Amino acid sequence: MLKIAWSKEYAHHLPEGHRFPMLKYELLPEQLLYEGTITEANFFQPNPLSEEQILRVHDPAYWHKLKHLQLTPSEVRKTGFPLSQALVDREVRIMGGTVEAADFALEFGVAMNIAGGTHHAFTDRGEGFCLLNDIALAAQYLLDEQKAEKVLVVDLDVHQGNGTAQIFREEPRVFTFSMHGGKNYPFHKEKSDLDVELPDGIEDAAYLALLNDHLPQLLDHVEPDFLFFQSGVDVLATDKLGKLAMTTAGCKERDRLVLELCHKNNIPVVASMGGGYSTRIADIVEAHANTYRLAQQIFF
C-alpha cells in the first residue's frame, strides 16, 4: 500500500502572506482522494520527530535557538518565514513524516510525504523556507539504525540541494545528486557528489536526456539500497522562480524515470514534494499529483 505522510498542520500553521504557494498541502490530498488515486487508508499522521533524532544531523546550538525562538532577525529573514512556535512545530512534524515514510518504503517499496524536501536547511542554519532537513534526517536515521548501508539522494528541484550537500559532505555512505538551474538560487552553490547545472529555458527533451544519461549510471556506480527523491515541480515553465521551460508532461516523465528505475532495481524510495511556485495553483497540484499517480501505477 502507498503510504503518505500528511497532517493538517502542513497547511494550517503557515503565516499570512505565505498561504498561496502552500495551499498545495491542502489541495493535493483532496485532489488525490477525489479522483480515486488513493483513499483515506493511504494517509498516516506523522509524529513530531524527537529531539534526539534532530540532533543526529543538526547542530545543538542551532536547534536550541530554533526551539526557543531565538534566531536573530538576519537568520529569520534567510528562512523566508516569520518565526513562530507553530512554524517550528509544523517543521518538526514534517521531519517525522519523512523518517516514518522511510520505514514504510522499506516495507512497501515506496512512500511519500505531502511536504518535505527541505533541502536548503544546513547543519547549523535554515534558508529558503527550510528550517530542518527532512531528507538528511531520514537518511541518517536509516544509517544509524542499520536499515540502509548506502543512500542516494536524487534532488530534482530547480534549486540546488545545498543544505543536503553540506550535511553529507564528509559522509561516504550518502551520495548527493542535484540537477538544478545553474543561474538560480542559491547563488553560492555547495558541492554535491554530483551536480548537473541546467541552462535557463531548458525544455523537456534536453532535460530528460540529461537525467537519463546520469541516473542509471549512478545506480550502477553507487549501488544504493535506499533512495530519496526530491520531486520539486518548480522546473515547470509556469513557475515564477524556476527559469526552466518544462511542461507538466515532461515533469511527469521525469518522475516516471526515477520511480521506474527504483522499482526495476528494487530500491526503496521516499519522495518529498519540494518546491512549486506556478501562478496557477492548479498547475502545482496537477504536477505533484502525477508523482502519486505514478507511484500507484508502478509499485502497486
TrEMBL record:
CDD domains assigned to the protein according to its UniProt record, in alphabetical order: HDAC_classIV
Name of one Pfam family that matches: Hist_deacetyl
InterPro entries, per database record: HDAC_classIV, HDACs, His_deacetylse_dom, His_deacetylse_dom_sf, Ureohydrolase_dom_sf
Domain Histone deacetylase: 24-289
Statement: the UniProt record of this protein carries the keyword Hydrolase: yes
Superkingdom as given in the UniProt entry: Bacteria
UniProt keyword list: Hydrolase
Family label: Belongs to the histone deacetylase family.
PANTHER family: HISTONE DEACETYLASE 12, HISTONE DEACETYLASE HDAC1-RELATED
Protein known as: Histone deacetylase
Species annotation: Nibribacter koreensis
